[in-house]
Every structure is written in C-alpha cells, then in structure tokens.
C-alpha cells in the first residue's frame, strides 16, 4: 500500500531546479518496468475491458518481479533503487558513533539515540539542537541525510558522508556559513519536499497545505522504481491478466515503443534543470506539459554548451550530435541497472570504428568515418592511460558536491586554441595545466590540423552575440537560419534576440512560433513579447493560446496580459484557460516565496489589486529573508500612498541585511521618488560597490548622477559599464544622449558606429 509521510527530503545533488521569481520567468531517470501479470489470481474468463475504462493507478511494485525477474535483479542494486531509503542499520553508511565535525562555522555531532541516528547542529534559529535522521539520499560517491523538522518538512543536512574516504565533509562551503543565509540546510531554499524527493521516490506529491504551512507529502515507494518511468501500472496488470485490451500494454506511454524524444524526456524529468508546473507529473505527456526546462544560460553553460553548474545531463545531451543521430539514454545505459551497456572505449566503437558502420539499430550512421579511433594514432596517448579513453576528450566532466564527478554529455570535440580564444574549458587544457596554453594548442594543431570549416560555429557566434562584438546580429541570424540547429540551442539564441531588435529579429522570432519543438515555440513567444509593444503581439501570439503543450500556452497568456483590456476576440476563453494554468502552477508551489511573488505580480497585472499585498506578505512568511518579495512589498506600499509604512519596513530590512545590494538599490529608488537626490546617490553608490557587475544598479546610479547635474560622472559610469558589457543596448543609448547633451559629438558617433557594427538594423540608427 502507498505510504503517507509527514516529511520528505533533500538530494544527494544540488536542488533539481531553481524556482524563478518574476512574472516573466515562468516557471529523468531511467528504470524500466518490472511488472507482475497476476495471471494466477484473476479469473481466466473475465470480460475484457477497453483501455479507457478507468485511469491507471499506482500499484505495489512488489508484483513487478513476478514477470520481469531479470530486470528486477538488475534494478535491485542500482542507484535508482537506493536513491532514498529509510534510515536504518543497513542503509546509513556514515559514522554516527559520537563523531564531531567542525564545519565552516557550525559544529555538528553525529550520534545514536533511541535506536535511531541523530545530528546535533545549529538550526534555523542559530542554536544547536538534536535532529533525527529520517532518510538517506544516495549511496555513492557520497551520502546525504534528511532531517525531520516540524510541519512535515524534510531538509538535507549540509554535511555529507564521503563513501570512498569514509569521512564527513561539507560538499559546498557556501552552506552552513550563516544560519540566516539562503543556503543553510534549515532554510526554505533547501527544503527537500519541494526540491529533491520527487526524483528520489516514485509517485511523489508534495501535498502542501498553505493554511497550516505544512506538508503531508506522499509517495508510492522510496527510490526510483518501475512506475517512476513507466507510469501507473494498474491497467498493465489488467492487460497481463487478459482483462484489458490495450495497444500499449496498459501504459499511457510504452517506453519500449517510444521514440528517442519521448524516452529522453522521460529521463529529463529528473536529469535536467527545470521548474515544475504542477505537483507531480503525468506519464505520457511531453516534458513541457509538466516542467519548464532551462535553456543554455550563461550562468549554467559555457559558450560551447558544456556544463559549468549543476544542470544534470539533459541540456548537454539534447544539443549533441549523438542525440541528433538517434542516440537515446538507453543506447548507452542499461535502464534497470543504470550501468553502461559496454565498458571502456568499446561503447563508442560500436559506431566509431574502422568499418565506418554502426552496429546499433536506430542510429543514423551517415557521415561516420572508417577509422580506428581506439588507437594512439588517433588519440596520441599511451593505450590504457589518461587521454586514451574516449570520455577523457569528448566527455570532460566536473565535480559537483565536492566529490561527485560527472561527465558532460555534449560529446564535444577538444580544441585548445578555440577554448583559449573564447574563454571556455577544454579537455586538453584541463589535463595539461602544467604547460602554457599556447603550447598545448600548438601541439594539438600539429596532430589534428586547423579547423577549415566555413560553417559558422554556434560557440563562436554566441561569443560575438553575448559580447556585443562586431557582427553579433549577423551571427545570430546565421545560426537561426540553420536547419540543423538543435532545439535547445535555437531556444537559447531566441532569448538573445531582444538584445538586437529589428524587423528582421521580429521575423525570426515569429517564424519559430510554429516550430515543431515546444522548447523553441516557448522561447519564440517570449522573444516576440520582448520585441514588440503589447498591441502588436495580438495576432502573432493568440494562436499559441491553444498550443498542445502547457508551457507554451502559459508563455503566450503571460505575454498577452497587457492587452486584456481591449479584448482577444475568439481567444478570450483560451486566454482565460491558459492564464489559469499559470496561476495553478504558482498555486501548486505556494510553499515557495518565489511562487507567491509571482502570484502577486500576476494579480497586479490582471486587475486583482486587492490580492497583491497579501501574496507579498505570504511570500515573506514563507521565507522572511527572500528580499525580492520584501522590495516588491515596499514598492507596493509606496505606490499606494503608504510611504511611511514602506520606509519602516525597508529600514528594518537594511538593519538585518546591511550588505544587500538589492536593498540599497531599492532604498535609492525610494529616496529618489521622494526627491532626496543626495541620499539616493549614496544608496546607489553603495549598491554598485557591493555588486559591481550588476548592470541595473550601474545604470540607476548613472541616471541619478545625471539628474544631480554630474553629467561627466554619469557618462563615465556608463562608459565603464559598456566596457564590461558592450551588448547593453539601453546603457549605450542613454550614454549617446548624455554625450550629445555634453556636446561630445565624436563620442556619439563612435558609439553609433559600434552599434551599427553590432546590429546594422537597429531602429535607433534610423532615428539618427
């Protein structure tokens, strides 16, 4: 029977997704089914039902091994099965024999009491207390522990067990530094009910009750079981018992028959950085019906798509040539044991071999070269040594959580010269750190020659685009015109279009509104929304309100919020339904301060002003230190003629967070609105000092300097900003106005010339 728990927990990895704040920032595992037919226990002559007689439900997975013994045996020792376990003598690997661990700031004691495992460490109030270990997370290379807190909360302790060294360690030094910091294990940002347990259990729902601010979280079974990937199995049991006619053996999606996209999206539910759109997911639907996966953002990916932060495998794999050629997760990994199907270079030489032919069905072998890749003639390293393995050069990895090394799944080609030019990592440079980079690049060139391809490269184009370099917009359009561009890369480039506005940019975004990939359509919707005024979006975006994928419908509804007052004609009902889906997505995450802020912003834009303040205050109840919600509340109070109340709230926050650049910037804005320009300038200057790379703070400071009569200082501030971020169009246009005001025509012309080199179709150039 399914178990109900008052708590659930953290993750051996970093949280699966960041919940994004702000209205416009809307918000995978592989284990094949081991199912028991139940033939002996059901009447042989029962009438056969149809597949749609009743929805499928979760069953006891103990029944699965009866018919799928081999798969069950493989799964038994897998990391999927052991992803989450009740704390016991057999599951707990760490030393709890009264061991003291001295962390960055806190002291943690691990001990046993009342037959259980306990931890004494600083809680949310900063005071040491005893917490019971409820569950283990993972088994190698580290194991984390989930501690029970009141109201059904489970939190992942920030001290973990190094299984190899058999020692306690702190996976991320940033955690535990300050009990009020967002990364402290006890804080809402580290809540495992929301961030972790879904991917470490089967059939999980958070079951958060906003009235009591508590969880009654539920799962069908701990660990990643059969139904986590295959879906509820009740109808499969009926099918196996011959009481149900079903083309897909009683499942909403048969993974044995699914195409590579559906299989990879099944794994991506957990093996991707994404934001949920519901409490739980629906088997058989597209990934973006239940989640919004991240694009290849500069924070999480390098220019060439290699991972640089905790993003899991999906984002890199989805942009790889391997995926484009037909590979899927189960091509290389046994989905039950999670082990590689073939060890060593033999895994790759099934396709990359002297015959130039693949031995794997379903793989497009066109373009394979007949070559012996598993030889020193190719990799130029001693056989069996580092550098001779395919993964060393084509799947370089990084260590997360301190010791968890993961290979990048983009299957990239090393090129040290290009990496040095673009500032990206490279397998050759990573291994040969003792040698100057130019020497490594020269040796690589001797072995492999120069890249003489005339096709514009994605990484080099993105280097131009994000750097605001000459030819940026041309490079952007060249990439978007490519038919072979992976969907996730196309979506990423669409997010760059608003930086280079023009009629051509709008046409490029509008064209992708009908792209077959929902990831691309969703990004195109947002690009259109950023490129044209609300009224002009109407005809372009209204059809997307009926898109078959939820994330796309939501994006269109949000972008059309601004024109609701004039009506949407025949699309009124579609808009109401889609914006309702967005609201429902946020309501399903009410335990998060970010979701409550999103709801407040939605209600403000949608004419529900009476609900805004309560949502902002609820956000601060969920997380008193979530400063974006506090700033929004201060601004709301100020805008509703309650300046003194907002002023007191902000001053109180500044006393608690004197080093917060966000609060100081907000203070400057508030002071500016009240006419106290000298005080505002001091606040803006301090915000810039604390966060010198934030363009928004720099621009606000420059404008305030200008308005105080310090034209030269304001212009110099913007010059410094543009040296750091040449692609900042708004700062450039503001500086053009300031230099023109100062009579510096040559500087104006130089800035315009740079803008024309970046984007010759920029509408600002036509006004000059």
In short:
The chain is of the alpha+beta class. It is built from 33 helices and 21 strands.
Structure description:
- This protein has 768 residues and is an alpha+beta fold.
- Among the domains are: 1-14 and 84-199, no CATH class; 279-448, no CATH class; 658-768, Serine Threonine Protein Phosphatase 5, Tetratricopeptide repeat (Alpha Horseshoe).
- Helices cover 39% and strands 10% of the residues.
- The protein has 33 helices and 21 strands.
- Strand 13 and strand 14 form a beta hairpin.
- Helix 17 (487-494) runs parallel beside helix 19 (518-531) and helix 21 crosses helix 22 (572-587).
- Mean pLDDT is 90; it is low at 1-49.
- Residues 324-354 form the Doubled CXXCH motif domain.
- Pfam families: Cytochrome_C554, HEAT_2, Paired_CXXCH_1, TPR_16, TPR_19.
- Residues 63-89, 189-231 form the Cytochrome c-552/4 domain.
- Keywords: Membrane, Signal, TPR repeat, Transmembrane, Transmembrane helix.
Shape category: globular
Mean pLDDT: 90
CA radius of gyration is: 28 Å
- Strand residue content: 5-15%
Q: Please, what is the oligomeric state?
A: single chain
C-alpha end-to-end distance: 72 Å
Low-confidence stretches: 1-49
Report the count of strand segments: 21
Count helical runs: 33
Largest sheet: 9 strands, antiparallel
The structural class is alpha+beta
Share of helical residues: 25-40%
């Amino acid at each position: 029977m399914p178990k109900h728990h008052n708590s659930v927990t953290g993750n051996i990895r970093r949280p699966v997704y960041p919940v994004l704040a702000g209205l416009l920032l809307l918000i995978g595992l592989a284990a094949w089914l081991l199912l028991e037919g139940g033939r002996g226990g059901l009447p042989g002559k029962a009438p056969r039902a149809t597949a749609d007689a009743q929805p499928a439900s979760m069953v006891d997975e103990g029944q699965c091994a009866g018919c799928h013994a081999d798969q069950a045996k493989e799964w038994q020792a897998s990391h999927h099965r052991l992803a989450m376990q009740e704390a016991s003598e057999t599951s707990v690997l760490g030393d709890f024999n009264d061991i003291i661990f001295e962390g960055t700031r806190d002291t943690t004691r691990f001990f046993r009491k009342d037959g259980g495992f306990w931890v004494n460490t600083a809680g949310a109030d900063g005071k040491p207390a005893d917490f019971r270990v409820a569950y283990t997370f993972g088994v190698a290379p580290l194991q984390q522990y989930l501690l029970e807190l009141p109201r059904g909360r489970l939190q992942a302790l920030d001290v973990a067990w190094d299984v190899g060294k058999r020692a306690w360690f702190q996976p991320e030094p940033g955690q535990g530094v300050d009990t009020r910091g967002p990364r402290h294990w006890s804080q809402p940002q580290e809540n495992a009910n929301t961030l972790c347990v879904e991917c470490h259990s089967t059939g999980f729902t958070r079951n958060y009750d906003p009235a009591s601010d508590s969880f009654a979280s539920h799962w069908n079974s701990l660990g990643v079981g059969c139904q986590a990937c295959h879906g509820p199995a009740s109808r499969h049991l009926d099918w196996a018992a011959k009481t149900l006619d079903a083309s897909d053996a009683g499942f909403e999606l048969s993974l044995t028959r699914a195409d590579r996209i559906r299989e990879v999206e099944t794994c991506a539910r957990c093996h991707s950085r994404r934001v949920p759109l519901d409490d739980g997911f629906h088997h058989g639907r597209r990934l973006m019906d239940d989640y919004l996966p991240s694009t290849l953002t500069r924070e999480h990916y390098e220019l060439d798509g290699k991972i640089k932060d905790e993003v899991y495998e999906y984002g890199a794999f989805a942009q790889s040539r391997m995926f484009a050629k037909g590979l899927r997760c189960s091509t290389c990994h046994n989905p039950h044991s999670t082990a590689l199907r073939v060890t060593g270079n033999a895994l790759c030489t099934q396709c990359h071999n002297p015959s130039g032919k693949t031995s794997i069905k379903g793989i497009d072998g066109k373009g394979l070269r007949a070559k012996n890749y598993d030889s020193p003639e190719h990799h130029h390293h001693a056989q069996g040594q580092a550098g001779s393995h395919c993964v060393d050069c084509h799947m370089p990895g990084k260590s997360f959580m301190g010791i968890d090394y993961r290979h990048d799944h983009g299957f990239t080609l090393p090129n040290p010269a290009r990496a040095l030019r673009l500032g990206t990592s490279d397998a050759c440079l990573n291994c040969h750190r003792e040698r100057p980079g130019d020497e490594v690049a020269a040796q690589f060139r001797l072995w492999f020659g120069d890249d003489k391809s005339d096709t514009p490269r994605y990484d080099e184009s993105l280097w131009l685009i994000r750097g605001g370099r000459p030819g940026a917009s041309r490079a952007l359009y060249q990439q978007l015109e490519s038919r072979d561009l992976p969907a996730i890369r196309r979506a990423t480039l669409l997010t760059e279009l608003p930086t280079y506005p023009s009629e051509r940019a709008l046409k490029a975004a509008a064209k992708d509104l009908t792209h077959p990939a929902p990831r691309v359509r969703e990004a195109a919707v947002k690009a259109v929304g950023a490129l044209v005024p609300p009224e002009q979006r109407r005809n372009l975006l209204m059809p997307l309100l009926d898109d078959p994928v939820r994330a796309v419908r939501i994006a269109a509804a949000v972008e059309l919020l601004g024109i609701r007052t004039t009506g949407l004609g025949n699309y009124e009902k579609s808009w109401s339904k889609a914006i309702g889906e967005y609201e429902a997505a946020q309501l399903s995450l009410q335990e998060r301060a970010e979701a409550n802020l999103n709801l407040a912003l939605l209600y403000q834009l949608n004419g529900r002003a009476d609900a805004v303040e309560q949502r902002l205050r609820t956000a601060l109840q969920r997380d008193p230190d979530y400063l974006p919600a506090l700033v929004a509340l201060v601004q709301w109070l100020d805008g509703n003629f309650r300046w003194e109340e907002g002023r007191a709230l902000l001053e109180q926050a500044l006393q608690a967070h004197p080093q917060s650049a966000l609060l100081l910037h907000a203070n400057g804005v508030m002071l500016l609105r009240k006419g106290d320009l000298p005080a505002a300038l001091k606040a803006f200057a301090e915000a810039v000092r604390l966060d010198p790379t934030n363009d928004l703070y720099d621009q606000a400071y420059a404008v305030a300097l200008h308005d105080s009569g310090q034209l030269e200082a304001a212009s110099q501030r913007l010059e410094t900003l543009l040296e750091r971020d040449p692609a900042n169009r708004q700062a450039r246009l503001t500086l053009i106005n300031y230099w023109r005001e100062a009579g510096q025509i040559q500087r104006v012309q130089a800035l315009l010339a740079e803008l024309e080199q970046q984007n010759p179709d920029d509408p600002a150039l036509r006004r000059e």
